[in-house]
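Rotation project, supervised by the postdoc (A.L.). Task for the rotation student: set up a whole-complex structure prediction and record inputs and outputs verbatim in this book. Inputs entered:
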Amino acid sequence: MSLRNTAQRYGLISVVLHWLMALGVIGLFSLGLWMTDLGYYSPYYTSAPFWHKSIGLVLAVLLVLRLVWRLANPKPDPLAGHRGWEISLSALVHLLLYLLLGIIVLSGYLISTAKGQGISLFGWLEVPALVTNLPDQADRAGAVHYWLAVSVIGLAALHALGALKHHLLDRDDTLRRMLGMRLKQGKES
Amino acid sequence: MKKTFAGLALGSLMALSGALQAADYVIDKEGQHASINFKISHLGYSFVYGRFNDFSGNFSWDADKPESSAVNVSINTDSVDSNHAERDKHLRSDDFLNVAEHPTATFESTGVEMTGDDTANVTGNLTLNGVTKPVVLDAKFIGEGDDPWGGYRAGFSGTTTLTLKDFDISRDLGPAAQDVELIITVEGVRQ
Ligand code: HEM
Ligand code: HEM
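Outputs recorded:
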């Protein structure tokens, strides 16, 4: 498997980015819900948000890298068995996943920086606050953050169901070529 | 013409009655010569100070008859500010002030009892987080007189301690932080 995408399959970089980010998104979602429910005397009360924000910032960087990589690489051709509506629906879902993730990291940033404080990245450096004091900034950004996080998880579940349908019912290469596995059909590249 | 005359007559009548009663003051919100602050223990090791940035109110005051004074304040709870975006968001949530449901807190005095030359217990009803409870403000008259810009001003400070649970704020911040102290300093401009 090459680093770059080919017409037949996703390359190593795309595969690693996909699964790293999928892990990050599901992890941050669970962490987010859990940490906002902690009692004041929980030992994780200050560390959980610290990790949530730091990992979230990493995810934001990965998202940008991924979009750049996506534009610099060919998108693998739809498999022979893919129907027209499947191709357009999956393209729409992918677009929405990228879009929602972008807005989620942005809104998360806007919560924390609403009053001018920066966000610590693992304690190594501080990402400065650039946009502050918008009307009700923290509350509005917080509502957007929460509802889009719920939406992205819902959409990702639909997306995963689709992938599993192709893998288990259609028994085609859709999931295999995102996992970097040997393909059943066609030539390896 | 008639209207103007009636207006003038009414105006002077009101001025006259005003002279007989205590003077009315509007809290100088515009010039920000007033602040409503709170102070709460952090773990028993230190204190956090915060404030409400948006409020309005008025009081009546007559140095000769301090017992007949009265004060009304209305606070926009959405304006809570502890200089920390995430904490302030939490303070606005239903863990604390629930500003979506209870956007205003009010204090309406019901009585003033002098405890010294310039100190008094101001009793009144405080409505906070939708709960109304009588509280006693430990108040102090600071001073009054002409200001340099043609007005007349009087100023007071007051403190009281509230137990968070009394106002249905059940979020537990630890044994040292069950109570919060309100610290109010206001200056009024005579109307
Ligand atoms: C730059 C990236 C991110 C930052 C700076 C960030 C920041 C925050 C902050 C400050 C909160 C606390 C909000 C509060 O106090 O109510 C929060 C909550 C949360 N975050 Fe993030 N976040 C980021 C990325 C993400 C991502 C990628 C997800 C996952 C999809 C996510 C999911 C959540 C969830 C579910 C909550 C709980 C919301 C609630 O219950 O109110 N966050 N985030
Ligand atoms: C939060 C989790 C996830 C996110 C945000 C996500 C996001 C994405 C995105 C944006 C793409 C499009 C890649 C491109 O630009 O070409 C994609 C492709 C893909 N994803 Fe996910 N994904 C997630 C989880 C999953 C899971 C759990 C599975 C499998 C069970 C999966 C299977 C796939 C497959 C097979 C493709 C390739 C689709 C195709 O060839 O058209 N993803 N994913």
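Student's summary: Residues A 25, 28-29, 32-33, 36, 49, 52-53, 56-57, 59-60, 104-105, 108-109, 111-112, 119, 142, 145-146, 149, 152; B 86, 89-90 surround protoporphyrin IX containing FE (ligand 1) (CB under 6 Å).
Supervisor addendum: The interface with chain A takes residues 78, 83-86, 88-89, 92, 171-174 of chain B (CB under 8 Å).
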